[in-house]
Amino acid sequence: MEIFKTARIYNFMGKKVPLLAVSTILVILSLVSLYTKGLNFGIDFAGGTVIQVKYEKEAPIQQIRETLKETKFSNAIISKFGSDEEIVIRVTGTTTSLGGDIGEEMKSILSQTGNFEVRRVDMVGAKVGDELTKKGLTALLLSFVGILIYVAFRFDWKFAFVSILSLLHDVVIAIGAVSFAQIEVNLDVLAAILTLLGYSLNDTIIIFDRIRERVQISKENDLDELINESVSRTLPRTTLTALTVFFTVFTLYAFGGEIIHGFAFTMLVGVIFGTYSSIFVASALLVPLKFSVANYRAKEAEKVLIAKEKAKNRAMFEQGRVW
Length: 323
Fold this sequence. Notes:
Layout: H1 16-36, E1 40-41, H2 43-46, E2 48-55, H3 61-68, E3 77-80, E4 86-92, H4 102-109, E5 116-124, H5 126-154, H6 157-181, E6 184-185, H7 187-217, H8 223-255, H9 261-281, H10 293-318
Parallel strand pairs: 1-6
Antiparallel strand pairs: 2-4, 2-5, 3-4
């Protein structure tokens, strides 16, 4: 299947200034959303209780609110859960006062609101929520550190720095979208963010690998031209991979139900902007960092000479010849 002609070179770098400007604006808007709206932390991080209830008919949300006002669940947040018949009742800040069989207690309190069944009760204590928050942030930090070390070792520190900037670009925009849409942030959303790190890095590494290859075998000294050629030659693979993941995640978003909604939404935003950053942002950031094609070729040539010298010395040693 061929979407783009591999022989054609597209001028991506000719549009790097407006595209980097768009990325900057998106990052700023995401940060503004995080500052003004914040994140809608679920019970995984904030602690609390979630009770999922399904009615035989449309759930009387207003009546449920009025009923719960007179109980210890007065601070509960009630919202629909995928259909008009199903709701979730969220009570933040789980305490010992919410002990016992919450499901049976809720059945008793809401008995006058209609026929229903309690389908799920999840409780997370405040200490557990704090622990999950710390571990989640630690996982993100270790991911970035590991990526930085890996890319710096395999390529060059400038490639590593650009990779981290590109990943931060994707993560900030994805989290900004979650904040703007007020998606509940739970472990599923964190899993989506970590998945996006790997997805976006994989696309970026493939393009960087092609840039390194073109620098070594081409006589071209213009970095913009080398990037254009490298990105153009990986474009069919990048596009097909992105579309495959996009349609899979979109199916989950459309038909997977409310439980997986947060994960699918985060992945959708991440796949779109992860692909966008791999093509338009990551490589373009090498230009302001003053990446030198000549210096990189010289370093690679020196590595080849050192490797040949080591191979020669090893062969002489194996043959019993010593200087």
